[in-house]
Amino acid sequence: MTERVIPLADHRYASIVPLVPARPVVADGLVADRLGRPLHDLRISVTDRCNFRCSYCMPKEVFDKSYTFLPHASLLSFEEITRVARLFVAHGVRKIRLTGGEPLLRKNLEVLIEMLAGLRTDHGEPLDLTLTTNASLLARKAAALKAAGLKRVTVSLDGLDDAVFRRMNDVDFPVSEVLRGLDAAMEAGLGPIKVNMVVKRGTNDHEILPMARHFRGTPIVLRFIEYMDVGATNAWRMDEVLPSAEVRRRLQAEFPLEPLDPAAPGETAERWRYVDGRGEVGFISSVTQAFCRDCSRARLSTEGKLYLCLFASRGYDLRALLRGGASDDAIASAIGHIWQQRDDRYSERRGQPQPSPPVQGGRRIEMHYIGG
Ligand code: SAM
Ligand code: SF4
Ligand code: SF4
């Protein structure tokens, strides 16, 4: 396959139009990348916009009034998203996570959910369909999301103290509203619910124990995420990362924990449970303990670019194929071929010299653009 680099209308990130390989890659659910990793998860970003300005993701100074978000015509339509998702499912995807930006800001998201909920694996099974949200709109939307076919949600919440939370979302959003969203999600049956807390040393690490106390004894699984050097705008510093081992040590001083086996290969979180049986916690240690070896995640950006790694600096422009009249077989073949070439493992190589960006001017994608 030859690749063509095209200039982007807004010059946001480098992009490649995938050419369809001469020898088809049949979507038989068995495609593997160069490191033998299957294609099991697809994260779909449905918007690059957000109503929060978390400093580790969309710092206010960069994402201000003058920042240009993607124009509506650039976004994949629900029909386009569903068509691509179906082809990924044919390649073996079993789990789809909607993300963003803030996915609940995408208009009529329930319609997309209903369409994705109708997809089946080649064994006739429905997908594990989930969504990551800041929960600001969840109280209003939980019941409709469930009715549309969403299975469960993951909620991002970085602290319980209202002042700390307002500072972290940087738009003065109250924590009570997120907690109301969590209640609504529970009531609607959008479980098992996970809560993700990004821990920044010196900013919210004093919230670790209050968060653990709050969710202990509930069906909600709290997961601690190491602050990552994703993108190029969050002014990441290693000394602001609190390693998971330290988070666990602080928890264990109050609540004894024991390790659990992973629920599935490729799972990002290390699972532990309270010895007294009052629930489970998780640790996502992308900085101190890379988990690239089992990474089976592909990411589809809001305007239809396929990224093979969270730290990638170029995407494959599937929208060009979708809107260029390519057949399903041709697009599936292109996706399969791209996956077969994949050798990304950024986190494992962090700190070592990385392969230089293959495309001139290629800059690392931002979290709000590609989702978690
Ligand atoms: N807006 C939604 C939300 O916050 O849940 C979905 C998109 S957000 C980009 C997805 C996840 O990425 C969130 O859980 C967020 O906390 C996490 N995240 C964003 N920037 C991060 C960073 N620098 N390090 C670690 N996690 C990050
Ligand atoms: Fe928005 Fe989520 Fe990024 Fe926070 S982490 S700014 S809620 S996209
Ligand atoms: Fe997967 Fe890239 Fe993260 Fe490694 S760094 S786990 S390859 S997304």
Keywords:
11 helices, disordered N terminus, alpha/beta, TIM Barrel, binds S-adenosylmethionine, binds iron/sulfur cluster, 372 residues, 14-stranded mixed beta sheet
In short:
The protein has helices at 78-90, 109-117, 138-148, 162-169, 175-188, 208-215, 244-252, 318-323, 328-340, 346-349, 367-370; strands at residues 3-5, 14-18, 41-45, 95-99, 128-133, 152-156, 194-199, 221-226, 257-259, 270-274, 280-284, 297-300, 305-307, 314-317. The protein is 27% helix and 17% strand. Residues 1-10 and 357-361 have low confidence and may be disordered.
Q: How would you sum up this structure, described in words?
A:
The chain has 372 residues and is of the alpha/beta class. The protein has one domain (4-370): TIM Barrel, CATH 3.20.20.70. The chain starts with a strand and ends with a helix. The chain has a 14-stranded mixed sheet. Residues 1-10 and 357-361 have low confidence and may be disordered. Helices cover 27% and strands 17% of the residues. Bound molecules: S-adenosylmethionine and iron/sulfur cluster (SF4) (2 copies). S-adenosylmethionine (SAM) binds at residues 50, 56-57, 99-100, 102, 132-134, 156, 196, 198, 225, 227-228, 230, 234, 367-368, 371-372.
Report the C-alpha radius of gyration, rounded.
20 Å
Average pLDDT, all residues: 92
| Spatial arrangement of strands, main beta sheet | 1-2-14-13-12-3-4-5-6-7-8-11-10-9
Class in CATH?
Answer: Alpha Beta
Work out the strand percent.
15-25%
Put simply, the count of helices is: 11
User: Largest beta sheet, briefly?
Assistant: 14 strands, mixed
The second-level CATH architecture is Alpha-Beta Barrel
Q: List SSEs in N-to-C order.
A: EEEHEHEHEHHEHEHEEEEEEHHHH
Uncertain segments of ≥5 residues (pLDDT<50)?
1-10, 357-361
**Molecules bound to protein:** S-adenosylmethionine, iron/sulfur cluster
Count structural domains: 1
CATH superfamily: Aldolase class I
> Terminal Cα separation, in Å?
29 Å
How much helicity do the residues have? Answer: 25-40%
Basic shape: globular
- Based on secondary structure, the structural category is alpha/beta
